[in-house]
# Entry
Amino acid sequence: MRVLVFVTASLLLAASGGCSSPWNDPYPAADRAGNTLYSAFVERPKHLDPVQSYSSNEITFTAQIYTPPLQYHYLKRPYTLIPQAAVDVPVPWFEDAQGRRLPEDTPQADVAFSVYEIHLRPGMRYQPHPAFAIAADGKPRYLELTAAGLSGVYQLRDFRETGTRTVTAADFAYQIKRLAHPRLHSPIFGLMSEYIVGLKEYSGTLKKANAALAAQGRGDAWLDLRRYPLTGVEVVDDATYRIRLKGKYPQFVYWLAMPFFAPLPVEADRFYAEPGLVSRNITLDWYPVGAGPYMLTVNDPNRQMVLERNPNFAGETYPGEGEAEDAADGLLEDAGKPIPFIDRAVYSLEKESIPYWNKFLQGYYDASGISSDAFDQAIQFGSGGQVMLTDDMREKGISLKTAVSPSTFYMGFNMLDGVVGGDTERARKLRRAISIAVDYEEFISIFSNGRGIAAQGPLPPGIFGYRDGEAGINRYVYDWIDGAPQRKPIETAKLLLDEAGYAGGTDRGTGAPLLLYLDATARGPDDKSRLDWLRKQFNKLNINLVVRATDYNRFQEKVIKGNAQIFYSGWNADYPDPENFLFLLHGPQSKVKSQGENASNWENAEFDRLFDRMKNMPNGDERQEIIDRMTEITRREAPWLWGLNPKEYGLSHVWMKNRKPNQIANNVLKYQRIDAAQRAALRDQWNGPVLWPLVVALMVLAVFGLVARGAWRRRERGKGRLDVDGTH
Amino acid sequence: MLRYLIRRVLYAIPILIGVNVLTFTLFFIVNSPDDMARMQLGVKRVTPEAIDNWKRERGYDRPLLWNGSAQGIDRVRDTIFFTHSLRLFKFDFGTAESDGRDIGHEIRTRMWPSLSIALPVFIVGLATYVTFALLMALFRATFLDFAGVLVCVTAMAISTMFYIIGGQFLVCKLWNLAPISGFAPGIGAWRFILLPVGVGLVAGFGESSRWYRTIFLEEINKDYVRTARAKGLSEGRVLVHHVLRNALIPILTGVVVVIPGLFLGSLVTESFFGIPGLGSYTIDAIGSQDFAVVRSMVFLGSLLYIVGLILTDISYTLVDPRIRFE
# Structure
């Protein structure tokens, strides 16, 4: 009993202030009042090398570390490119085959080269890094490391000495060369080698050099790219470089806003090639080197990744202009102030949505999305259907921001298929009938909690060329009624089906019921309910939909070989240009013919011709007109069932400032601000320990112990009596 | 004993080769090297050249098990199986296909968080379950025994997932007594492992306690126990000194074999509690078609199982002097 009293007293003492932070605080007490952002990541990043990294879970980190020449304006919409490492957004000049400059309005066919000259901001310096450390003799401190030199080195921070240097144009050129590095796999090498002059040949040169090293038994040795010039990239001086492209490629500036084109110091490339570092997992893929506002100081992707302010960051200021409502939303209050505001950002691995959500509610994550499980807890719909936070969320001061993603999720028809594909009126009407029957508004309502809009064509909102309102509806599927698109009645679809020769879902020619096949990578119960729903949609037309559930590999194989009939797919924008979506329907990009991204294998001569014109045009009325014509062709031909454009819902706590959804830019951490004192106070308020269950549990244990002890004693005594009585 | 151990170790070699071949065959029935390359290179803008390069660099452009175009011994040696799988016998795990990380380093790093959960659950659990089972045996055929069995059956009927989610809801969210998930290196880990350990203990309580109770009840009516009682020993002494010692063989059979595998962790517990252990390493690798990790972990798992079986055999001789290695 004395133990029980002692434990209870200890607990009460601890709860009354013996601890400086709540018991359920997952972070060290010392970090409590720090200017730190707390967030989570669901999937561990694989690559942080800017030449390889391409996934959304990686760009969360790389975008804060690397400084490509350009970036997107944080507040302006539509998305606008502004300089980052560059002084301005480069405007290319054009040259003919002999290298003579051409006027700006030269037709595309006459342009042999586009030249982008990029002028760099002065004063940019790299984060502190051992690759820059210099020994007393003036040579790099950590070069030609021996086994003894690597003794005790397990992480990058085990190299005690660091250094820095100014970013130069040669670093940008070096990184472009790395796109063709034979030991790296840049996802954009194929695309860029079509445009950057000499890059394809450069890849061949590097392969030979690499093979020569391998032949000498030095296959892992550093490949110094400075020894091999790349004709398409010219370093003019320390602050200027030029990139020469074949023909016109206006979308190239968008690539200049991605880490693929960030500067990479040759010292870092050389440092990470030191023998013995790879086996210690010390690689550029793991420890990036940048000149951005943050640097990665902890990389434990099984637990936590930590970004800290780069002390050498050249500085930037918070934007002073944005959209009309930004001022009212308080997004311009920090205009002109130096950024970044936040000192540290701690990202914890959180694989499961339930702990993630609960920690957000406790204030241990500063922002969160909303999983389907938590949707009803967070969101309610007003009488007019407007989206609102629930009372619980509002009481906590949580705010909601929504934005339609520049993404599309569609159902593709394989145009090489004999039933749903082909350029025949019969197949076209069948596809249109299905497009009407599959009610994506219902899908969004049931499976996405209303988070999305039914797509009207290949372009999502926010991308130039997308039309809103009545002008933007797909008239083959919708009517404009009472100021809103209304899906055509199922009778219209049945009529189309009849005209296609499948009256009542039966092939008029053969008398056989129409059977269609959907290839899908079904994984769990959620998929089953979605597929059941889809079968019902097809059943509206008496079409039997057979779902061929398969694994990811077989699905990919079927799509690549053109053996799928109907399939699900999707695309997230690389950059906010219509070309980045319309190329998914461009004939020469056919998956079967050229292993491109046109998974439907749709080819339409007029569309392809318009695409070739549109892709090199600046945004304007003429481009809009062409896009309208292209969109109309796609709607008429219906190679896709347009599916949906998802809507992102983001929640953030009251102490988070300057948060605005930005679906294209990723380097947004530097703009955000935190009121750490308010956060600490609210965390304390929300997370006071409740001790009575512990007391009850201890009492139950004590009672159980006493009862057991009593029973034991009775039993022992009882046994003795029995023995005495001789009745045992 | 030494001869016995050597013999068992030699037996292990063909078993491990068999496991390796089976893993290799099953993996490549489901995934081709092209599939692996596509998975590692990402879903966007993957060209056939990039796939070929990836395979060539990693040696996946060779035939799987038999190289018909090679000569002599190279027909076997110049294959994916020989170059990738047999190196495991040198404990050379290589690097992961997905992120290039050294697999051995990853295992050494991640085993400690897994152990920090699994070891307390194992030790405290064993002590708790045996004690509870002994108590049920002590009070057999009484109300206390019935209540104990009822508790065990109820505990067995509830899924581990329920304990995890329920535990997180009650302890961490409603009562704010511990962090919901997370981990800290060193001594700071205690706050994060209390609840997972508690959940692990509760989740295993029903099944283990009932199993041990059954073992004890089987022993408790044997002649030697009756003799002990006839000699006037107390029931507690009979249980602990006679019944427990003689019930150790079936207990050890189930317990010792799992000891070496403890550091492999638990997938569900570690995922929900954010423990950076080895629990999800293999599953994640299967999902990402990372053959290097899959083969290493399967190899290690089989090896540890064999070690566990050998340890079990050795432990028999410690608790039962009648058992000899011969």
Notes: The two ends of chain B are 8 Å apart (CA to CA). Residues 2-90 of chain B form one domain. Residues 103-138 of chain B form the longest helix (36 residues). Chain B touches chain A through 64 residues (CB under 8 Å).
